[in-house]
Amino acid sequence: MAFDFDEMLQTVKDKQWSLADIDWDAPGAETMTDELRIKMQPFLADLVWIEHVGARGFASLATKAPTPVIREIYEYFHAEEQKHANAELALMKRWGMLDAEGNVPEPNINVKLAIRTLDTFGDTLPLSGLATLIPLLECALDGALVKFLLDEVEDPVCHEVFRHINSDEARHIAVDFQVLELIGAGPLVKLLIESASNLKPQVVLGLIVVFVPLINKMRDNIVAMGLSEQKLYSAVKRFKTIGSRGEFTGRIPAYHVLKAQAGMVIDRSHPYHRLLADPLVKVTGLIPARLLGKPQSWTEEITHEPVAS
Ligand SMILES: [Fe+2]
Ligand SMILES: [Fe+2]
User: Fold this and answer.
1) From CA 18, how far away is CA 37, in angstroms rounded?
2) Exposure winner among 138, 203, 216, 230, fewest CB in 10 A?
């Protein structure tokens, strides 16, 4: 039976929540020890910005949505990812992880590159390519990183916030893969033509240089925090598992490319890591942060103030 996008849109509307629903001064903040604070601060800063990578992705998807209802769903998702970023920022404030002015911390260089790339190419990427990339990023980053956080942090306010965020994310993933089904069920000729335009060398190269080291960099961070990378790999595996349940997703060329990449990501013995991903983390790490400037267009939209929804 075809997926009911109208019903999903209604559910998305019904499940809206805001930062004002959370009691940010409730007890529990003291569970954040100094040791944990030092460990989690850079991790959370990256997470805040990864939400913005998702937000930017949904903004681009909304401009090329296959139906008006899906466009509206994407617009909600765009706002939800921003809300996640702001809620995570409010948690950072609660835990004393922001400076005196409440400044937004800078993301790592690979996250910065991802934001810049989506800003530059996001709107020009074909629907099938972007619609495939977003669920991979959502499974690998949004989904996995949140699990690490919940395992490490006891604060009940954090768990309350992430109950909302995870419920949003479950809908994101469901829609992401249902849209792939819809695209995959379309005429094959259209998919192939679209994919051929996807293969412009500068775009493919740009995506590799940006998104390959992004996942490996987060893996390095996870290992540096003394956590097991297996959770990240199980999250990446979900991309293959959910995608393969679909009847038509397998007709999308971009899905096969990213599924192959996901397969290499979860196999640490694969030469992919030694020859491509790990060197790219090193090379991109050499880019001076100031060259990329501040993560540009959303700086004004990011705030820990509970009034922002
Ligand atoms: Fe999110
Ligand atoms: Fe998401």
Assistant:
1) 25
2) 230
Distance, CA of 87 to CA of 47 (rounded, Å): 11
Rounded to the nearest angstrom, the distance between the alpha carbon of 217 and the centre of ligand 2 is: 20
Residue 297 has pLDDT above 80, yes or no: no
pLDDT band, very low/low/confident/very high, at 159 (cuts 50, 70, 90): very high
Considering the domain boundaries, does residue 26 fall inside one? Answer: no
CATH of the domain at 247: 1.10.620
* 169 CA from centroid of ligand 1 (Å): 6
Does residue 23 sit within a domain?
no
Residue 62 lies in a domain: yes
Query: In terms of residue numbers, what domain contains 149?
Result: 5-11+31-299
In a domain, 241, yes or no: yes
Work out the mean pLDDT of the chain and round it to a whole number: 86
Q: How far is the CA of 80 from the centre of ligand 1 (A)?
A: 7
* Distance from residue 165's CA to the centre of ligand 1 (Å): 7
What pLDDT, on a 0 to 100 scale, did the predictor assign at position 9? 97
Longest dimension (CA), the chain: 59
Q: Which residue has the higher pLDDT, 282 or 294?
A: 282
Q: Which residues, in sequence order, are CB contacts of 180 under 8 Å at separation 6+? A: 131, 132, 135, 243, 246, 248, 249, 252, 255
Q: Among 11-25, 94-108, 124-138, 240-254, name the most confident range.
A: 11-25
